[in-house]
Write a structure and sequence with these properties.
It is built from four helices and seven strands, in the order E-H-H-E-E-E-H-E-H-E-E. It is an alpha+beta fold. It has one domain (about 5-165): Gcn5-related N-acetyltransferase (GNAT) (Aminopeptidase, 3-Layer(aba) Sandwich), CATH 3.40.630.30. Strands 1-2-3-4-5-7-6 form a seven-stranded mixed beta sheet. The longest helix is centred in the first third of the chain and has 14 residues, at about 15-30. About 25% of the residues are buried.
């Protein structure tokens, strides 16, 4: 059995949040997929998770042979009732688990849980992150916009790419 076959996707639980926070913090500190400079605490991330699941938004994790190696969730695209059928997708995979199909499995599972939605948005803070763009496009997302120099990371301006999938 290859490593991809060993990936399990399930709903996140309280016990997962130290690993989730570690993956997220690593991306904030060393990547360009998030504009934040300071990682949120485990408590802050759990509060966010509780808010999402209280509003029937899925929050999934991927694990390989036990440890959490990625997570993904759907959050409101806007807090306006007119946009209630649109969600923004977030996917984050641990550095050592990338390019193994885990992001694809997480994204596909989230889309499977999004049947009540009309549109799912992916807002990618680094328009040069081709692996992330390819991941979304492989599951039917199309580019609908590009925002020039809307955020900074390590003193450099970064463009954001907007992708969308109608379900």
């Amino acid at each position: 059995m290859n490593r991809l076959d060993e990936v399990q996707i399930r709903a996140a639980s309280d016990a997962d949040f130290r690993a989730i926070q570690s993956i997220y913090a690593d991306e904030i500190l060393y990547g360009t997929s998030l504009f934040a400079d300071v990682p949120p605490s485990v408590i802050e991330m759990m509060a966010h998770w509780r808010g999402l699941i209280a509003n029937d938004r899925p929050y999934l994790i991927a694990s390989q042979a036990g440890p959490v190696c990625g997570f993904a969730y759907l959050s409101p695209y806007r807090f306006d009732p007119s946009a209630s059928h649109t969600a923004e997708i977030s996917v984050c995979v641990a550095q050592g688990s990338r390019r193994q199909g885990i992001g694809t499995q997480l994204l596909a599972a989230l889309l499977g849980n999004a049947r009540s939605l009309h549109t799912v948005m992916a807002v990618i803070p680094d328009s040069t992150n081709q692996p992330v763009i390819n991941l979304h496009q492989s599951l039917g997302f199309i580019e609908t916009g590009r925002l020039s120099k809307v955020g900074q990371k390590d003193g450099h301006w970064i463009d954001t790419l907007v992708l969308q999938k109608q379900l």
